[in-house]
Design brief:
Length: 355
């Protein structure tokens, strides 16, 4: 990372929603997901160099607001993110987010950015990275239960990174599936609309569950999951919110990001605290094995972890260099004399900088 240079310390690169969309279209959706995925893999291989803490969550009956911080000792990053399932009915996003990178040596911000769209890309990239190590060899068919805002990103990530060629869609809201079918029509994927959970998962190599209701639900029952399948469970991500029947967990080899967080927020909150799980970073780093047989059921119990957002922010910081897809935000005070902040205010009044 580059430390801010004297003379422009007040300016912080800011990526707006408009510039984020322009950047994605310039790079390509699949290419950008693949780039974020590569950064995630690289950072997971140095997992032990990071500060690790479960996200700081503020829960209410309407939803949750969270802060997700981490640092590798040189760069600090955090994400603000909410999850309010009721928002969709009010014409609002279920999830919104923004994030920041800062130089640890000075504490000065290096990047400020929207992360609603970037989180969608990051989540899809993380899912596909996990499946790269856990899914059946030569997997081609993915079932996607829950066709909301994350659906298309997941489908494109698995196409780009894992080589799937067919996605089967189901949602209790047919309008959501209409949207996904339309958006994926020119993706190069074979898109199949199904009429039930059971029809959707039948014959799939990979099952992705991504529903939004903040409750303990049973999206998949035990009889729906067969030998050899990989489950990418990304909808259960806070206390009291799950998607899978407990019996599926007992039949599966479970892989997680950060156990102290996942045991509180993930599918495994249904199990005893000492139920064995494997940490995904150890698989990526070659310390432990992922998929070991054709009949093994693998489960990525994904709740999202701060290092993944850190990776996405690092990727973005590099990607915007030399482009027009950011604005310099006048965000930091930069007095001529560091100790004379009040004098800076007085001079601004005298020069007419403040009316």
């Amino acid at each position: 990372m580059t430390t801010p240079q004297k003379g422009n310390l007040n300016l912080v690169p800011f990526v707006s929603v408009d510039n984020m969309m322009k950047l994605i279209l310039s790079i390509g959706v699949e290419e950008m997901i693949a780039g974020i995925a590569a950064q995630i893999e690289s950072d997971f291989k140095r997992w032990e160099s990071f500060d690790k803490t479960a996200r700081v969550a503020s829960h209410s009956k309407e939803g949750v607001i969270e802060l997700m911080p981490t640092s590798d000792g040189e760069v600090y990053g955090f994400k603000y993110v909410n999850g309010h399932p009721k928002n969709t009915k009010e014409g609002l996003q279920t999830v919104t987010a923004f994030g920041l990178l800062a130089d640890v040596g000075t504490g000065y911000p290096l990047l400020f950015t929207e992360m609603t769209i970037l989180t969608a890309l990051r989540t899809a990239a993380m899912s596909a990275v996990a499946a790269k190590y856990l899914a059946p060899k030569d997997a081609k068919i993915m079932a996607m239960i829950g066709n909301g805002a994350q659906c298309e990103f997941q489908a494109l990530a698995f196409k780009a990174i894992c080589g799937i060629d067919t996605v089967r869609l189901y949602d209790i809201d047919p309008v959501a599936t209409d949207k996904a079918v339309f958006n994926l029509k020119d993706s190069g994927l074979t898109v199949i609309r199904t009429n039930s959970h059971q029809e959707c998962v039948s014959g799939a190599d990979i099952i992705t569950t991504c529903t939004a209701d903040k409750q303990c639900a049973t999206i998949l029952t035990d009889n729906m999951v067969g030998a050899g399948q990989h489950i990418n469970a990304i909808g259960g991500d806070c206390p009291g919110k799950t998607e899978l029947h407990k019996d599926i967990l007992l039949r599966s080899d479970i892989f997680v990001e950060y156990p102290p967080q996942t045991r509180v927020e993930g599918e495994i909150q249904q199990l005893k605290e000492d139920h064995p799980v494997k940490e995904l970073w150890k698989v990526i780093a070659g310390i432990e094995q992922g998929r070991t047989s054709d009949t093994q059921i693998t489960l990525f119990d994904s709740v999202g972890f701060a290092i993944e957002d850190f990776s996405a922010l690092r990727y973005l910081y590099s990607a915007i260099k030399g482009t027009e897809f950011f604005d310099n935000l006048d965000m930091l005070a930069d007095p001529d004399e560091p100790r004379d902040l009040y004098g800076m205010v007085r001079r601004a009044a005298k020069t007419g900088a403040v009316a």
